[in-house]
Automatic annotation (TrEMBL):
Lineage, highest ranks first: Bacteria, Pseudomonadati, Bacteroidota, Bacteroidia, Marinilabiliales
Catalytic residues identified in the record: Y50
Entry protein name: Oxidoreductase of aldo/keto reductase family, subgroup 1
Gene Ontology molecular function: any one: oxidoreductase activity, acting on the CH-OH group of donors, NAD or NADP as acceptor
Pfam family, one: Aldo_ket_red
Positions marked as site (Lowers pKa of active site Tyr): K75
PANTHER family in the cross-refs: 2,5-DIKETO-D-GLUCONIC ACID REDUCTASE, NADP-DEPENDENT OXIDOREDUCTASE DOMAIN-CONTAINING PROTEIN
Entry keyword Transport: no
InterPro entries assigned: AKR, Aldo/ket_reductase_CS, NAD(P)_OxRdtase_dom_sf, NADP_OxRdtase_dom
Binding-site list for substrate: H108
Amino acid sequence: MIPITKLYNGVEMPWLGLGVHRAGSGSEAETAIQCALRAGYRSIDTATYYQNERAVGKAVFESGVRREDIFLTTKVWNTDQGYHSTINAFEASLEKLQTSYLDLYLIHWPQSELTFETWKAMEELYEKGQIRAIGVCNFLIPHLKRLMENSRIKPMVNQFEFHPELVQPELLQFCKDNQIQPEAWRPIMKGRVNEIEFLQELSDKYQKSPVQIVLRWDIQKEVVTIPKSVTPERIISNADIFDFELSADDMARIDKLDKNARLGEDPNIHHF
């Protein structure tokens, strides 16, 4: 079983989940999710922007796994931000996902003043019990500070790009200091971690793949991780990271691979 962490409101969240960004909107996503659930995953991360919420809902519904045992995440997209449009987007996501509630609802990107209206809607949905936890994606420290200054409930999760070449220690520490759970997207750098010489050395040392080394590094840094894959062998392999531990020295040496190098969009272009 994949271990869990507790968010500051007491909700339990698995340390490892399946990301479905760019997974097809039909059988590709469904097959990947059903494989993951059979392999013991209990967390699925999607988004309105991915255009596969309906496939996710179908896969979960047909899996035979109880809905209450699955941690289901989706996100409100930029063009849906604002108070009323967020409520509408949330209802549309519920319908596509074939569920009456979400475990985690995230703001996909900061969108200036609209984000405050979006967050107000999410706070109300949370207080009504329609969402078990609310959070954000791609928020840097200034974004988080402004949101927290203009809200009643602080985010429970911040999902952002995180991998050995983009460690963002100050952001990690800020999240820790404020009880905001960090969550990594693109943790294996689209597979590029396999090309990093030091990770290849660690692979030989621990008899684990470079991908498994990096996912284990995430967990030991207390960062929830959601590697994306639609390949059954890789989905299963990605979960095989709870039977070993990286030494403190090796953890520190992975940290030193940091180049502050982004593979995705820079959140700095979004301002409040």
